[in-house]
Design brief:
Blueprint (H helix, E strand, L loop, with lengths): L8 H9 L14 H11 L11 E5 L3 H10 L5 H6 L2 E8 L6 H4 L3 H9 L1 H25 L3 E5 L4 H9 L4 E10 L16 H4 L4
Antiparallel strand pairs: 1-2, 2-4, 3-4
Helix pairs in contact: 1-7, 2-7, 3-8
């Protein structure tokens, strides 16, 4: 088996340098089959203890879309309305119940069961990590993704997640970008020398 895991320049551009958080979208709908394929790809991304706390809710129905729109901050409502697909990236506060599937140990599950506060922190941290993988996976499938954090999480959880153990973290506005997608040109970003310190 090859140990050369480097990807070529075209793949790097697709995932990073040419990718944008679109504001304008192509009319093509986003198939849930594509979303499921992306999930099956990104679920292998590394997390602490190999846990998988990320859960994804697709707000596909009119009622679900209305609930997301109602919870969104005023400045985000037009963006949510325009997006072909809205995904809610959520954390499962009872992720340890799935250790029999994901490979966690019984002793680790018992520790998480006994410490709800640690469980919440752990699920948040690793869900955000997995959400990064999800964004890259969606980009790899040719989709643009705009993450949105401005929304009332409690209101959204009450409307869509009910009595489940899922708790919303981010909205992901997903679609095929229009040819002129309104994201603008890249401005100067922090250089590696500014962002990385070697001690």
């Amino acid at each position: 088996m090859s140990t050369n895991f480097a990807i070529d320049a075209a793949a790097r551009a697709t995932l990073f340098t040419d990718a944008r958080s679109a504001l304008q979208w192509d009319e093509r709908p986003v198939s849930m089959e594509v979303v499921r394929e992306v999930w099956d790809l990104i679920k292998w991304g590394p997390t602490a203890n190999n846990t998988v706390p990320l859960r994804v809710l697709a707000a596909a129905s009119e009622d679900a879309r209305a609930a997301v729109l109602g919870a969104a901050a005023a400045g985000n409502r037009d963006k949510v309305t325009a997006a072909p697909l809205v995904l809610v990236a959520a954390r499962d506060e009872r992720f340890h119940d799935a250790f029999g599937v994901t490979g966690g140990s019984e002793s680790a599950a018992a520790r998480f069961e006994a410490d709800p506060e640690a469980r919440t922190t752990f699920s948040h941290t690793n869900t955000m990590l997995q959400t990064g993988y999800l964004i890259l996976g969606l980009r790899a499938a040719g989709l643009a993704v705009r993450p949105v954090g401005g929304f009332d999480r409690a209101a959204l959880d009450s409307a869509l997640l009910g009595d489940s153990s899922w708790r919303s973290e981010l909205l992901l506005l997903v679609g095929y970008p229009a040819e002129s997608h309104g994201a603008g040109e890249r401005k100067g970003r922090m250089s590696a020398d500014q962002a990385i310190r070697e001690l």
